[in-house]
Design a protein that fits this description.
Length: 447
């Protein structure tokens, strides 16, 4: 599924019409089959905030950690040995650590160390620091999504019937009780009724859209489409997605050999790489080495709850992609219907950097990255970073380094910010007495 955010002057200026794209998984397993396959639970403080600030009883980190451990089968003995209370080894989902990281990653580790970072287990007790990614990729070099782990081993259980290429268009209600759904397959409409309950698990984009089409949403918005109101709830509010800024530093030619091309062209020689994956479960395509680092901006007072994530990915045989992401931010977006046609995507305002503190934090975070490339040992290996004027942004002739050019950095951020493919929050969970909640801690629609 592909979505486009509404234009905003604060971000996405590189895209046609300023419309930043996003996506979700259109397959069995949904979005668990997409993205970098990073095994990243998030910071424990986020779960505790759900429980203690928003009233989501049963969702503190102490509550959810046993569940995480139960389904985890971590195959990295070093990680399990160092933090055994945080990892499981007997669950159905295999977790691996890449074993073919580019040799150039060692220079990143040295640069991080020089800036005061320490290697850490980002799924352990202390998230601040850097690490080679842990992945939802099994020891055979294949993705571990919910479809492959829970459906493929038992594709025809007695209590499950899967309808593929189907789109649910409406939830049916009897009063305030959901009793079934309408869906379409090949332009033919069907109705199915529930014996017990209807579970909506369509993700942060389509769950709110389906609820609103079915009469669950803000009364004012539903009335504007003449949709009968079943429940007046803030569906689509509180939408969140990590704002991310991309940099692509290019190595000097003599260091190209320290990179591995992750997307080989399919000539005769490169077909050998495919055979490594499918016959030996090895090689470039069997893993996705990425460095993850969590740090804090100067405004973040709680250094044990970092507000910035760096991800460094191999992207070609000459360059890396360095992603700068606000892990915590205050700006909130909103999702609305653009039509009563379920085939049309919703209207989504991302609203990144709407909050002034978010703007200050992303400026600080991006400046720190430019500093790393201009003032640490990494500068010895890189071609000169292009001036801001190369993308139509102002340069600062009076500044020696790009990280000192505030106006150039601000424009660079506006031009290069995208959405992080991590949508959340559009059906907020919390205590039922809160006016901003859509579902209770048992994930039941609040009524």
């Amino acid at each position: 599924w592909v979505y486009y955010y509404e234009p905003n002057k604060n971000y996405g200026l590189q895209f046609a019409g300023g419309r930043v794209p996003d996506q979700s998984g259109k397959t069995l397993g949904g979005s668990s089959a997409l993205n970098v396959m990073a095994f990243n639970r998030g910071n424990s403080r986020g779960y505790d905030e759900w429980a203690h600030k928003y009233g989501a009883d049963g969702w503190s980190y102490r509550d959810v950690l046993p569940v995480f451990r139960e389904w985890e089968n971590n195959t990295d003995p070093r990680i399990v040995y160092n933090e055994p209370e945080y990892h499981g080894t007997h669950g159905p989902i295999q977790i691996t650590t890449p074993n073919n990281a580019p040799t150039f990653f060692q220079n990143y580790y040295k640069a991080f160390n020089s800036l005061g970072y320490k290697e850490t287990d980002i799924n352990g007790p202390n998230q601040a620091g850097y690490a080679l990614i842990q992945s939802f990729i099994n020891t055979a070099g294949l993705k571990e999504g919910t479809g492959t782990v829970f459906i493929d081993p038992n594709p025809s259980p007695d209590n499950l019937h899967i309808v593929c290429k189907a789109l649910v268009t409406k939830i049916l209600f009897n009063g305030l009780t959901a009793i079934g759904v309408e869906f379409i397959v090949n332009d033919i409409s069907y109705t199915v009724y529930a014996n017990r309950e209807v579970i909506v698990s369509a993700g942060a984009f389509q769950s709110p859209q389906l609820l609103m089409l079915s009469g669950v949403g803000t009364k004012q918005h539903l009335n504007s489409f003449n949709i009968p109101v079943v429940l007046d709830l803030p569906v689509g509010q509180n939408f969140q997605n990590h704002p991310e800024v991309f940099l692509n530093p290019i190595l000097k030619q003599q260091y190209f050999s320290q990179l591995i091309n992750p997307t080989p062209e399919l000539n005769v020689e490169q077909l050998k790489i495919l055979s490594q994956l499918y016959f030996k479960h090895q090689g470039t395509l069997s893993t996705f080495p990425t460095i993850i680092s969590y740090t804090s901006t100067h405004l973040n007072r709680d250094k044990q709850w970092p507000n910035v994530e760096y991800a460094i990915l191999r992207s070609s045989n000459i360059t890396f992609t360095h992603v700068v992401s606000l892990a915590r931010f205050k700006s909130r977006g909103v999702m609305k219907l653009q039509s009563t046609d379920p085939l049309l995507p919703p209207l989504i305002d991302l609203n990144s950097y709407l909050n002034a503190e978010d703007k200050a934090n992303i400026l600080d975070a991006v400046s720190q990255v430019f500093y790393m490339y201009e003032r640490t040992l990494l500068a010895n290996y890189l071609q000169q970073l292009p001036p801001f004027s190369s993308i139509g942004c102002p340069d600062c002739p009076d500044k020696q380094y790009l990280y000192e050019c505030i106006e150039g950095l601000k424009c660079f951020i506006q031009y290069n910010t995208i959405a992080g493919n991590h949508p959340a929050g559009s059906c907020r969970m919390g205590a039922i007495e809160r006016p901003d909640v859509v579902v209770d801690p048992q994930l039941r629609v609040n009524h």
